[in-house]
Amino acid sequence: MKNSFPEDRYWMKEALKCALLGEGLTNPNPAVGAVLVKNGELIGKGYHSRAGAAHAEIEAIEDAKKRGISVCGSTLYVTLEPCNSWGKTPPCTQYIIREKIGRVVAGSPDPNPKNNPRAVEVLPSMGISFSWELLDEALFLNRGFYHRVLTGKPWVIAKIAMAIDGSLSAGVGDERWISGLPARTLAHKLRMVADGILIGAQTARVDNPQLTIRLVDKRYKVQPWRVILSLSGKLPRDLTLFRDAFKERTLVCVRMPIEMVLKELGSREVSILLVEGGAAVLHEMLKEGCVHEISFFLSAVIIGKQPLNVNPYSPANLSFPFALVKPSWEKLGEDIYCHGLLEKGSKFLESIRIEYASKG
Amino acid sequence: MKNSFPEDRYWMKEALKCALLGEGLTNPNPAVGAVLVKNGELIGKGYHSRAGAAHAEIEAIEDAKKRGISVCGSTLYVTLEPCNSWGKTPPCTQYIIREKIGRVVAGSPDPNPKNNPRAVEVLPSMGISFSWELLDEALFLNRGFYHRVLTGKPWVIAKIAMAIDGSLSAGVGDERWISGLPARTLAHKLRMVADGILIGAQTARVDNPQLTIRLVDKRYKVQPWRVILSLSGKLPRDLTLFRDAFKERTLVCVRMPIEMVLKELGSREVSILLVEGGAAVLHEMLKEGCVHEISFFLSAVIIGKQPLNVNPYSPANLSFPFALVKPSWEKLGEDIYCHGLLEKGSKFLESIRIEYASKG
């Protein structure tokens, strides 16, 4: 690959660390981090902290200037290809050109159709070297952004909390008795990256959950949409979701096909949708093939509660047993956590890499 | 504790290693190992290899003699209190006295009522020092023997093999597609320690399992009883269980209460019963409170098969969610393995320790 240097990977990982500071906080924008490097030294860094705030590239340039260092001729490492479109801020490509950045290295492509032409084309035409140093983590970080921008629908994470007798707990964050604190904390971290949390009407009725973010530092996080799928539309008016401080962020979808629900949420700029159950909703989502990623919590507990599985899983509705792609297992206190992508999710991210990061 | 020496624990663990060589092979006898120590050196060792063969103590004494070493005045470390009853062989206490063993240390008590009086009483009365060096592992090794001898019923291990969507696989050893090889191998090791394997009629019909021991070295292992619980008694005559080389080891229990099934199996000298499912049978056993131990296998797979759960788990039938006692988690290839005792099992073993190993 032309224009590539051995140190690129190191600096891109530094930029990723910056990007992660904005994870879950930037929607509908992607989370992006950037570092500026000159003569082998970091001279500035920044990240996009929330929608409306400066982009990571600008933050890094301003950081260097505050330190009194000229950015002219430096190399910009940015986890996502710089934008070339007018949003709440001018295109980053303009800053890069104006500030005479010497070289730009990007960790993942930005396929947003608003960028026309893209930075990968614009910057070289202005004499600025551009190359990729693709990081799986950078791609993964913005899976929701990618999916919404390209399909109009959110990336879907199914959260499954189970006891060893197969009993499901829909609201792992809310039903305190099933999981230990480390697992519950992780469950709230999952909500931190979500722009919507979806449950079934039965879960709403039985658990009366809050679906808010607790146990973690929320910072600027916007309360995710709380979406209830209902067949009847008959839900008690005194549910917490209808009465608490975030009641404006509760949506009820009555007898709406999953596809339509996802499009509706996409139009509301939900990039990552977290499906928290119960069993019937999880089944429906799996059956419709719209789940990309699974976060699975297991507790060594016997509950003896039948999963609220109205529509039994049926082999006729699903293709042959499918495994998570390279699942990770982790011990979380007394519990076990498994995380992995389904093939659909894995293939989607691979397609982004192939289709949008081959130029340059 | 009187007569106890710092090296006792070390030698008892050596004796345990011997005992483990007979695990699963000695039923209806317990698995026992022994080492003889003189002047700080091991002079003989042995284990009970199968019912009818010499007891561990005798093996150790014979081993020392073969080496040309006098056992007179040596210390015998034996994982289970020596027997004081006539079985297929004379009482070990008689050998110990005749061979002028100086001191006996036992790793767990033998509460078998056939020993009357017990070695803990007989040996000191004959001038032989006796003390305990209790090992949890030695107690655990013979949990089945203890339970059958004291209650007339087997110790029950429930094996649960699950996918992350809660689907159960009854015959983890037989349904090759759900678990990886390390998990399947462990499943067959479980069958190695069992004297009976129990399934429901539905599992028999749908999976048509062999319930034999494969993938591991079987040595002298007797094929465990294969027990089918059936409500109707109507089972296809061409099931493998009715036609293979072990068809004489297949039992069908028709409309029999669990308690009666367990007593029947106890009378057939089943010390450890492995319950392999399906869901209805597991539910029944849990509900009746007759499960002592759980071996749980999890695969990061979505099967989409509804558990064959005819009688839904019901919270009304079970006490409040109960956790495994100090569960262990282990990664087995791509799968997860969880093992632990239920309170019932944990308390039973504790009672043996308290009631039978307080003397001496």
Key words describing this protein structure:
five-stranded mixed β-sheet; homodimer; Cytidine Deaminase, domain 2; 360 residues; Dihydrofolate Reductase, subunit A; eight-stranded mixed β-sheet
CATH architecture of the largest domain in chain A: 3-Layer(aba) Sandwich
Task: State the helical fraction of chain A.
Answer: 25-40%
Q: What coarse outline of chain A follows from CA principal-axis ratios? A: elongated
What is the end-to-end distance of chain A?
Answer: 9 Å
Please provide the count of β strands of chain A: 15
The portion of residues forming beta strands of chain A comes to 15-25%
CATH C-level class of the largest domain in chain A is Alpha Beta
Identify the most extensive interface between protein chains.
A-B, 46 and 46 residues
As a whole number of angstroms, the C-alpha radius of gyration of chain A is 22 Å
Q: Kindly name the structural category of chain A.
A: alpha/beta
Q: List the helices and strands of chain A in order.
A: HEEHEHEHEHHEHEHEHEHEHEEEEEH
DSSP summary: helix tally of chain A: 12
Instruction: Give unreliable regions of chain A as ranges.
Output: 307-320
